[in-house]
Design goal:
The chain is α+β, with helices and mostly antiparallel strands and 78 residues long. It has one domain. It is built from 2 helices and 3 strands. Pfam families: DUF5753 (PF19054). This is DUF5753 domain-containing protein. InterPro entries: DUF5753.
Length: 78
C-alpha cells in the first residue's frame, strides 16, 4: 500500500460550490497567496470540476488512506 503520488489538485486549495437547482450558478473559490479568487465562468468552473473528479478517482479508498496515515505516523514516532 503506497501513496498514489501527485494529483491535479496539488497546486492549491479550491472549493467547488454547486447549486443543483441552477447549475449556471456553480462557482469555484480558490486561494492564492494574496487572497481568494472567485471563478464564475462555466469553462473555468468545468476545469475545476474535472480536477476534482481526477483527484477523486485516483485517491486511495478511505480505509487504505487511514492505514497509510497510521503507517507514516508510526514511522515518524520511531
Amino acid at each position: 500500500m503506497d501513496a498514489r503520488g501527485a494529483h491535479s489538485g496539488m497546486f492549491g486549495p479550491y472549493l467547488v460550490l454547486s447549486f443543483p437547482r441552477v447549475a449556471s450558478l456553480d462557482l469555484v473559490l480558490t486561494e492564492i497567496p494574496s487572497g481568494n479568487i472567485w471563478v464564475e465562468q462555466e469553462p473555468e468552473v468545468a476545469y475545476y470540476r474535472a480536477l476534482f473528479d481526477d483527484a477523486r478517482t485516483t485517491a486511495l479508498p478511505p480505509t487504505e488512506s487511514l492505514a497509510l496515515i497510521h503507517r507514516i505516523a508510526k514511522e515518524y514516532r520511531t
